[in-house]
């Protein structure tokens, strides 16, 4: 059923996007990008690459908060090299690659696993904070209050879930459960725990979301124009679409879900053809930035060894 539901979600989003392309085909083909536009697209690609590099650095903060001494340059390389694997079916292989690389660098297996679980939770919390602040810009007037209550409740649950008061007992329980199944263990009784609330990584993830949204906003600006007072609208809609792409199954890297959500949220505020073109172009920019990040990390690693 899980595999079947993934195919249903993927098929539905692709059908929606295909229909949107059909409805806006004439407008999409009429869009032209001048020299300035291409320069802005290049900047958007650089900002998106910076966002992924920044996310790799935040991962090292999470590991440090779990009392694991790590080398930031080395782990940023790992992060960038594994990031492209999120487009593989299953949407877990980038996490698996990071766990394996962290264990090979003498990081506790439990801490490595927890770090890749905490990272998306912190990203989720950061996206929810932005959505709560900006949701009134893109939500219908008669549903704004209800949506904000649901968003605040969701944010409260996520923020509590990453608090040491909740997280450390869960860690201890899981470790004891694992110890009962294994007669021999070489790890200490409590191999890792959060000493304080992960505020620094949370603030860092807010910066990550800001950088990702900036890349999208620059892409919109390269294809058309908008008012400065519409930036919160774009920021909130991007964060909402990105969040759904993260949590909905069957969408490796949020592929399809992000595009369909962003289109639906923005098409009532901007020309539909502009929105569709910007979303499609931003997906290409994201993949290009992630591929460039993986290639640069691999090259830097090779140069360091030579």
UniProtKB/TrEMBL annotation:
Keyword list, A-Z: Cell membrane, Membrane, Transmembrane, Transmembrane helix
What Pfam families does its record include?
Answer: LPG_synthase_TM (PF03706)
Membrane topology note: Multi-pass membrane protein
- InterPro entries given in the database record: L-PG_synthase/AglD
Q: Assign the protein's first listed, main location to one coarse class.
A: membrane
Q: Where are the transmembrane segments?
A: 38-62, 121-139, 145-167, 202-223, 235-258, 270-299
Q: Where in the cell is it found?
A: Cell membrane
Q: Specify the protein name.
A: Flippase-like domain-containing protein
Q: Which species expresses this protein natively?
A: Nostoc favosum CHAB5714
């Amino acid at each position: 059923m899980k595999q079947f539901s993934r195919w249903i979600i993927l098929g539905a989003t692709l059908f929606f996007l295909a229909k949107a392309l059909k409805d806006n085909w004439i407008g999409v083909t009429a869009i032209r990008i001048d020299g300035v536009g291409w320069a802005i697209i290049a900047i958007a690609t650089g900002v998106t690459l910076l966002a992924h590099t920044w996310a790799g650095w935040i991962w090292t903060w999470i590991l440090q908060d779990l009392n694991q001494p790590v080398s930031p340059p080395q782990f940023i390389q790992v992060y960038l090299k594994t990031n492209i694997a999120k487009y593989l079916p299953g949407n877990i292989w980038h996490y698996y690659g990071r766990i394996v690389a962290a264990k090979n660098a003498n990081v506790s297996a439990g801490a490595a696993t927890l770090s890749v679980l905490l990272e998306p939770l912190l990203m989720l919390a950061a996206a929810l904070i932005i959505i709560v602040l900006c949701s009134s810009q893109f939500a219908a007037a008669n549903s704004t209050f209800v949506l904000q209550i649901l968003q605040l409740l969701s944010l409260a649950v996520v923020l509590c879930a990453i608090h040491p008061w909740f997280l450390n007992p869960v860690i201890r329980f899981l470790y004891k459960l694992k110890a009962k199944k294994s007669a021999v263990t070489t790890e200490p009784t409590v191999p890792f725990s959060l000493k304080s609330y992960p505020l620094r990584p949370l603030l860092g993830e807010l910066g990550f979301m800001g950088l990702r949204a900036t890349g999208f906003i620059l892409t919109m600006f390269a294809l058309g124009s908008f008012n400065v007072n519409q930036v919160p609208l774009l920021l909130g809609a991007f964060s909402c679409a990105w969040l759904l792409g993260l949590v909905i199954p069957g969408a490796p890297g949020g592929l399809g879900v992000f595009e369909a959500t962003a289109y639906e949220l923005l098409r009532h505020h901007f020309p539909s053809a502009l929105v569709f073109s910007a979303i499609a172009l931003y997906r290409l920019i994201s993949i290009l930035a992630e591929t460039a990040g993986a290639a640069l990390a691999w090259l830097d690693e090779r140069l360091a060894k030579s």
